[in-house]
């Protein structure tokens, strides 16, 4: 089961991962402080496979990558939103956390809904409500990059393959 955690519009990087924690690069530490200023119970109760759903302009604010990696290290496999701040969108791809743009899913998914995703088909399934929403599937090269775990792991694969 992939439980949904829903948040509204303009969820910024300061509430995704507070600036006071930026000095610590330990993945477990980052996961333990994910969303703590917006939803203090999130980090304590999120489970691997749970999904974060935002509204418009998700990830606005600073360019801190920790706003992506804290969710990834908490076990969130993808984020769904009506729209993303451009830098957050790119940071998510670079760090292997697929940012799925679906205004319909963002509007209809509610906290606690059971949600699954088919990245190749561009489909989000809300099993709780028996609904399916579309998002634009990633091009093949981005699918390979995401499958590798992000830009750095992808580049390592490419270098190792060519040696």
CATH architecture name: Alpha-Beta Barrel
Number of domains: 1
Radius of gyration from the alpha-carbon trace, in angstroms = 15 Å
Largest sheet report: 4 strands, parallel
- Determine the strand fraction and express it as a percent band: 5-15%
CATH superfamily: Aconitase, domain 4
Brief synopsis:
The protein is α/β, with parallel strands linked by helices and 163 residues long.
Q: Would you kindly provide a written description of the structure presented here, covering whatever features stand out?
A:
The chain has 163 residues and is α/β, with parallel strands linked by helices. The protein has helices at 13-16, 27-32, 42-45, 66-73, 86-94, 103-108, 140-148, 151-162; strands spanning 4-6, 51-53, 79-81, 99-101, 115-118, 123-126, 131-134. The protein has a single domain (4-138), classed as Alpha-Beta Barrel (Aconitase, domain 4), CATH 3.20.19. Helices cover 36% and strands 15% of the residues. The strands form 2 sheets. It has a 4-stranded parallel sheet with strand order 1-2-3-4. Strand 3, helix 5 (86-94) and strand 4 (99-101) form a beta-alpha-beta unit. The longest helix is centred in the C-terminal third of the chain and has 12 residues, at 151-162.
Spell out the key features of this protein:
Aconitase, domain 4, globular, 15% strand, 36% helix, 7 strands, alpha/beta, four-stranded parallel sheet, 163 residues, three-stranded antiparallel sheet
């Amino acid at each position: 089961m992939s439980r949904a955690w829903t948040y509204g519009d303009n969820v910024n990087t300061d509430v995704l991962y507070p600036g006071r924690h930026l000095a610590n690069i330990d993945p477990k530490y980052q996961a333990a402080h994910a969303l703590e200023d917006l939803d203090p119970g999130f980090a304590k109760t999120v489970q691997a496979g749970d999904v974060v759903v935002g509204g418009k302009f998700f990830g606005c604010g600073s360019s801190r990558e920790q706003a992506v990696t804290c969710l990834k290290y908490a076990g969130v496999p993808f984020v769904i939103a009506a729209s993303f701040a451009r830098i957050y969108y790119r940071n998510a791809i670079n760090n292997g956390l697929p940012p799925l743009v679906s205004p319909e899913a963002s509007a209809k998914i509610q906290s606690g809904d059971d949600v699954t995703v088919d990245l190749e088909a561009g489909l989000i399934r809300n099993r709780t409500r028996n609904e399916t929403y579309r998002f634009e599937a990633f091009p093949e090269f981005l699918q390979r990059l995401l499958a590798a775990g992000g830009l750095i792991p992808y580049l390592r694969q490419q270098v190792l393959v060519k040696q």
